[in-house]
Amino acid sequence: MAISNFPKIGSPATRALEAAGYTNLKQLSKLTEAELAQLHGMGPKALRILSEALKAEGLSFKQGKVGENLKKKGSPVSRTDKVDEFLRELRHPLTAEIEAVRSIIKGVNKDIAEEVKWKAPSFNYKGEYLVTFNLWEMERIFLVFHNPLIPQVKSKILEGDYKDRRKTYFTDMQDIKAKKPLLEKALKDLIKLIDLG
Fold first, then answer.
1. 127 with 146: CB under 8 angstroms?
2. How confident is the model at residue 1 (pLDDT cuts 50, 70, 90)?
3. Proportion of the chain above pLDDT 90, given as a percent
4. Cα angle 87-91-93, degrees, rounded to a multiple of 5
5. Report field, pTM of the whole predicted structure over 0.70
6. 120 burial class (0-12, 13-18, 19+ CB within 10 angstroms)?
7. CATH level 2 (architecture), domain 1-70
8. In the prediction, which pLDDT does 70 show?
9. pLDDT at 78 over 80
10. Three-state secondary structure readout of 31-97
11. pLDDT digits (tens, 9 = 90+) for 22-41
């Protein structure tokens, strides 16, 4: 781990900065506060502390546009190492099935990145969230598609009528194999919508 000159901002925010490759305050002066807020784990208190630390060094966040408020995004840097480590330590009866679904998702597009979010593997495309495992259920695999564009994707595999999310489930390897083409198509359709956006 690189030595940084960040103030005490809490472990989640510190990990967010390290995961994004930031090691010193001066680097943060090239970002707007809204851009920094996009990092998973970066909250308002950490932003305030960093802003004060920059000020003490005669620096500040880059000026953003008035009213700029970017939505949270996934890390465009794939954290496969962290996901591998997470899955090695995971105690779940369907670990092999989770790995199979993970492999299908990653195989859809070379620009799909992965990270650990909400204590589960999560996938994004160019920083736009696609889908995250929900590992609370032990009898089946539960995926949450969480993207504002997902309601526009029509697929038998997608369940729910939520504003910005859909769910899908897999019970075993046979079910995964049967639904693989539907999962791939749903992801490709979502990626196409993101590219058009």
1. no
2. very low
3. 39
4. 105
5. no
6. buried
7. Orthogonal Bundle (1.10)
8. 46
9. no
10. CCHHHHHCCCCCCHHHHHHHHHHHHHCCCCCCCCCCCCCCCCCCCCCCCHHHHHHHHHHCCCCCHHH
11. 888 888 888 888 777 777 77
Q: Are 52 and 83 in contact (CB under 8 A)?
A: no
Res. 2: pLDDT tops 60? no
The burial of 152, by beta-carbon neighbours within 10 Å (0-12 exposed, 13-18 middle, 19 or more buried), is given as exposed
CATH 3.90.1150.200, domain 80-196, yes or no: yes
- Cβ within 8 Å of residue 65, ≥6 positions away: none
Residue with tokens 């995250």: 132
Domain locations in the chain? 1-70, 80-196
Rounded average pLDDT over 131-156: 92
pLDDT beyond 70 at 135: yes
Q: Which of 110, 119, 108, 121 is nearest to 186 (CA)?
A: 108
Cα 131 from Cα 144, distance rounded (Å): 5
Rounded Cα distance, 122 and 12, in Å:
17
* Sign of the dihedral defined by the CA atoms of residues 31, 35, 37, 41, in that order: negative
